[in-house]
Write a structure and sequence with these properties.
Number of helices: 4
Strand content: 35-45%
Shape: elongated
Number of strands: 32
Radius of gyration: 36 Å
Oligomer: single chain
Bound molecules: zinc ion
Distance between the termini: 95 Å
Length: 404
């Protein structure tokens, strides 16, 4: 009898212990927050809206289902077109766009929310034990283009780079300026173009107007004077007639070079600073130099830099690009034109020879020919010129294009 009493006693203690543990375990889980799955939209962590958690107590004997509700809907403000949603791999996301169209996908994603307005995002996740997790939230997108102009106080002959970001795909971008902009190239949510401060234009304030998807953005560019060199010299009339007087040479030059003012590569090949096309040369004529011949009141202007150095010296590509022209022209001799992208071009003239051909892709520093004195030239030198459309830019700015 005594042993039965002991047995019953032990049984009661056992039931109490298990019950107590079970009650304790149940309470523990009840008081916990629902097991949150980490969801972030940009940098914000999103609160759940509805979680049904399934679990068991008493070592699997009793199944429990518990639902947690969160009445508040999170609204996130975003001034970005590109937004990042980070969820677990199997999460199913449904986005309702401002126009009420719906898109569904699984896993994390970079979201291009192209139109301003309200987006509803609903995320559903399930776990192996049958628990379900819902996250509903709103994203209010108010994205504006970000416009960066490399310099609002440039000097004559400087090249401006204008970067536009945070714009929707295939945006309509128009530029209104006294200067002729390069081609405008857009990739995804970014666009870029160049604006040359053509050296012949007077130093003053010029308005720049950008029209992006119907919205206008106004700027004022304060062009500062650049001190161009002045050179006075005399030339025999017979020499004049053989150069500018040779209409065939002029016609050939115009027929070949002028069409290149309108062509452009849609790929941007150049990278970092441009480099001088010859090493160790003396600058025999500077950029924009004003040449007063035979006491003339009006100057002819030098549109590039002349590098005087021995014939046969290597000439290298100032930056990476695509060879648009390689050939001989009576006026400027053996000539190479490289398009570095978007119509930013460098010209190499009076060369002894050219060792690359039209259509070649060249690297920065690659040998493209040798210094000569072909065409109308009075000595071994390389005429080097930077162009956007028909506007010359100072190569010195190309050498310092990269702010790093
Ligand atoms: Zn020259």
């Amino acid at each position: 009898m005594k042993s039965i009493k002991v047995l019953i006693g032990l049984l009661i203690i056992g039931i109490l212990a298990i019950g107590g543990y079970g009650f304790f375990e149940f309470n523990q889980i009840n008081e916990q927050e629902p097991p949150i799955q980490t969801i972030t939209f940009n940098q914000d962590q999103i609160d759940y809206t509805n979680v049904t958690k399934r679990y068991t107590i008493l070592g699997g004997l009793i199944p429990i289902e518990r639902t947690y509700l969160n009445e508040e809907t999170t609204t996130i403000q975003s001034d970005q077109i590109q937004n990042s949603l980070v969820v677990q791999e199997d999460a199913l996301t449904t986005i309702t766009y401002p126009d009420q169209s719906v898109q569904t996908f699984t896993g994390s994603q970079e979201l291009g929310l192209e139109e301003n307005g309200e987006y509803r995002i609903e995320i559903e996740m399930n776990s192996a034990d049958g628990s379900t997790f819902h996250y509903d939230f709103l994203v209010q997108v108010d994205a504006k283009p970000l416009i960066s102009i490399s310099n609002l106080n440039p000097v004559q002959g400087e090249l401006l780079i204008i970067d536009i970001s945070n714009i929707k795909m295939d945006s309509l971008i128009e530029v209104e300026s006294h200067f002729r902009p390069s081609a405008i190239i857009q990739k995804d949510h970014e666009a870029r173009f160049y604006l040359p401060m053509a050296y012949r234009e007077v130093a003053k304030s010029y308005p720049l107007s950008l029209m992006i998807n119907g919205e206008s953005y106004e700027y004022s560019i304060e062009v500062q004077p650049y001190s161009f060199k002045e050179v006075h010299f005399t030339v025999k009339p017979s020499v004049v007639s053989s150069t500018v007087g040779n209409t065939d040479a002029v016609d050939q030059y115009r027929a070949t070079i002028y069409p290149m003012y309108e062509t452009f590569e849609t790929e941007e090949y150049w990278d970092g600073n441009f480099i001088a096309p010859v090493e160790g040369a003396r600058i025999s004529s500077s950029f924009g130099e004003m040449r007063f011949v035979n006491n003339s009141k009006t100057a002819t202007r030098h549109a590039g830099i002349d590098y005087a150095i021995a014939c046969g010296t290597d000439v290298v590509a100032s930056n990476a690009g695509k060879v648009e022209f390689a050939g001989f022209l009576t006026m400027i001799g053996n000539t190479i034109v490289i398009d570095h992208g978007l119509g930013l071009k460098t010209f190499y003239e009076h060369m002894e020879d050219t060792v690359i051909k039209q259509g070649d892709l060249v690297e920065k520093g690659q040998i493209i020919g040798h210094v000569g004195t072909t065409g109308y030239s009075t000595g071994c030198h390389l005429h080097f010129q930077g162009m956007v459309k028909n506007q010359s830019i100072n190569p010195e700015f190309l050498y310092n294009l990269d702010p790093q």
